[in-house]
Amino acid sequence: MVPSSNILDFRQVLHDSKNIVAVVGAGVSAASGIPTWRDSDGIWTAYDPAKLATPQAFTANPSLVWQHYHALRDRALAAVPNPAHLALALLCIPDLLRGIAPLAKFTLVTQNIDGLDALALERTIESYRAGRGNGDTCEASRLYEMHGRVLDTLCTSCDRRQCDRTSPLCPALASSSLRTAGDEIHSKDLPRCLHCGGLLRPGVVWFDEVPHHLREIWEVVDHADLCLLIGTSSQVQPAAAYAYEVVDHGGKVAVFNLEQSVDDDHCEFLFLGPCAETLPAVLF
Ligand code: BJW
Ligand code: ZN
């Protein structure tokens, strides 16, 4: 199939859809200054994921892994949502969604760990409520952060998960970065749990771990008649399978990406370019 980039045709499909799911990847945060994983300047192009993003890597060298995540946390703390995050957040507000897709339910599934989708949603809900000025509650659509959050910590002993925006999380991580990671930090000086003293780990989903909310996400994907696949290379399972599942049961896929990929032959629509520009332009 040769995908179309006709905006009016896409808007008609959007208008007629009943269950829309957006599956989001690192390209959505690119305009916020967060590097992607597999592009030429991506994190996994410079570093080996097997040494940094697996439970085995953490057991073998928690100091190295924490120095890597300290740098990722600082990037996430400095970043603000861009127009792509905000466009998706607008779709999460049922009253606004009704304007372009009157029959639809919308669900946002992000693979990103930077928390920017949630921040954009929080801010959008706040301004929407402030704009209405009548204290109306606003029941936003669901957001599933399937690979966790880099600003969360997870205790390896008592399993407590907590959002902690402190930086550095402990004095030993001050001024450390992966490039200076030659100096090993003793385990007792790494971030520790305030409740039980156990070693903390970053609250993200590593390779070989089970992503979050899988049952809820499959339920949404199984019923979706339109999947927006935005800024992802679709190389990581299970997220990579979602668009195929939507096509398999007769739904449509619209891809928003910088470049065309071999997998795009299953999509009905393809909008090439930075999604911080294409997404707002195509949706609204
Ligand atoms: C733009 C843009 C702009 C740029 N505008 N676009 C062998 C075969 C198949 C599968 C496996 C296998 N061996 C193991 C597996 C499974 C494994 C996997 O898929 N591995 C493959 C890499 C081979 N998956 C897992 O282990 C997952 N768990 C799992 O499968 O559990 C088993 C299970 C499942 C279900 C039920 C029961 C059990 C866990 C995956 C965890 C992924 N973790 C990471 C890191 C998190 C934080 C960290 O540790 O540091 O998550 S990896 C990394 O990749 C991150 C991302 O969320 C994820 C996806 O990357 P994404 O978002 O697609 O980024 P990129 O960089 O790849 O692509 C960016 C795209 O944006 C590109 O297309 C650009 O063109 C585009 N772009 N700028 C628009 N401005
Ligand atoms: Zn603990």
From TrEMBL:
Highest taxon listed in the record's lineage: Eukaryota
Name of the protein: DHS-like NAD/FAD-binding domain-containing protein
